Description:
This protein is of the alpha/beta class. Helix content is 40%, strand content 24%. A 7-stranded mixed sheet has the order 3-2-1-4-5-7-6. α5 (62-67) links the parallel β1 (50-54) and β2. α3 crosses α9 (194-202) and α9 (194-202) packs antiparallel against α11. Mean pLDDT is 92; it is low at 1-7.
Amino acid sequence: MTAASRAPAAARARSFDRAAALYGASRPGYPEALYDAVEELAGLPLAGARVADVGAGTGIATGPMRARGARVIAVEPGDGMAAEFRRAHPGIPVVRGDGDRLPLADHGFDLLTYAQSWHWTHPEHSVPEVRRVLRPGGALALWWNDLDGAVPWIAEQDARIRELFSAMEATVRALPDGLEFTTREVRWSRRIPLEAHLANHSSHSAFLLLGEPGTSAFMDAERERLRPLFPDGTVEEQYVVTLSVACP
């Protein structure tokens, strides 16, 4: 059993700080159709909305919401991630905190977003915080961006990753009880160099905790497996974003 396999969720959450630049450079963004769906399901336009992006990381979701006219603030617990956020988005405020203890005023926000970060919270704390911070009629939006397991090569790669980390404590993505969510899937794809595809995987918490030797060995093997599938060196990654919106 590797150290990564034994690592609890809290250690995995903290692992991003030491790889914030890799995270910011390698993680995929989100399609514009996602933000269209957020607006539709939340029943409000992002333009002019008071938004807090919680667990904002390097600002992958925060920046596009700002570009749509949202009055957005980022909430981020990690030193390294917050520093990378400030470098990438100097015009967007970032405050230190997490979903279990939001450093935000009561009933001050139209929308709270958790872009691939809700699973790091504890719902017994984070749900009351959501209710405290949202204004009446406000909305909570949670989403996760996953490689599409219906694509054969992606499913095969995912199986290899699951086997490598079979003993790792699983992160829980269940929607919290007591809230009524509407869920929608948004499918999209991007074409990127093979090395960028491997770097994306390397930025995930399991590999960050595995360490450089183990990660390099896995990625070297993946490179050799994928080269025959993508002889021009360009990988087409296909994604499914699962969006769930509630109005507490």
